Amino acid sequence: TDIGSQKDRVVSEEEWLQKWEMGNTGFHKEQGHPLLQKYLDVLLNGRSGLRIFFPLCGKAVEMKWLADVGHSVVGVEISEQALKDFFAEHSLPYCEEPVPEISGAKKLQSTSGNISLYCCSIYDLSSSILGKFDGVWDRGALVAVNPRDRQRYVSLMMTLMEENSSYLLVTVSYDPNKHKGPPFYVPESEIKSLFG
C-alpha cells in the first residue's frame, strides 16, 4: 500500500494546539457528523445508557447530543481551549480537577456528571484511568494520528473496549501523494490489519 510521502509525516502536539489557538479547525463540524446520525443504530445496537468514548474529541457537538439522550460521554483532547469552548458553546457548567495519574493533565467534567473530558495526550491514558467503553466514535482520530503511531493508537483503543463494544470509524479517501495530511489517508487494508 502506497501512502506516499505521508509515512514519515509527524504533526507535533504544538502544531495541534496552534490550530486551536488560531481557529484553524476546518475539521470541526458545527452541526455534528451526518455519518453518526446515519449509523447511530450500529453504535448503540439497541442499548441505552452506554459509555461512549470520543478519542481526540475537539469540541464535537455530538458529545452533548449523546449525553442528552442518556449516554455517558468521555473524551480526550490535547487542547484545553477546545474543551473549554465545548462547555462554553453549550452553556454547560463544569468543574475542573487534576488527573492524579498524569502529570499536568486535567479532567473537565460537566456538573451533571455525564460528560468527562480529559486534557492530555491520548497516549497518557489507559483503561485503569478511564475504564472501558461500550462504544467509540472515531470521527477524526485515526486519520489525525501520525502514521508511525497508528499501531500504538489502535492497541490503546482495543484495551479501552468492552467485549461487545461498537467502534464507528470515519476515514477519508484521496491520493496521499497530493496531500500531506492530516487528515491522513488510511487504506482499508491497513484498517483491517490494525484492528484485526
Automatic annotation (TrEMBL):
Keywords: Cytoplasm, Methyltransferase, S-adenosyl-L-methionine, Transferase. One of its GO terms (cellular component) is cytoplasm. It catalyses: S-adenosyl-L-methionine + a thiopurine = S-adenosyl-L-homocysteine + a thiopurine S-methylether. It comes from Rissa tridactyla (Black-legged kittiwake). S-adenosyl-L-methionine binds at residues 16-27, 56, 77, 121-122, 139. GO terms for molecular function: thiopurine S-methyltransferase activity. Belongs to the class I-like SAM-binding methyltransferase superfamily. TPMT family. It is found in: Cytoplasm. Its EC number is 2.1.1.67. InterPro entries: SAM-dependent_MTases_sf, Thiopurine_S-MeTrfase, TPMT. This is thiopurine S-methyltransferase. Gene3D superfamilies: Vaccinia Virus protein VP39. One of its GO terms (biological process) is methylation. Transmembrane segments: none annotated. It holds the Pfam family TPMT.
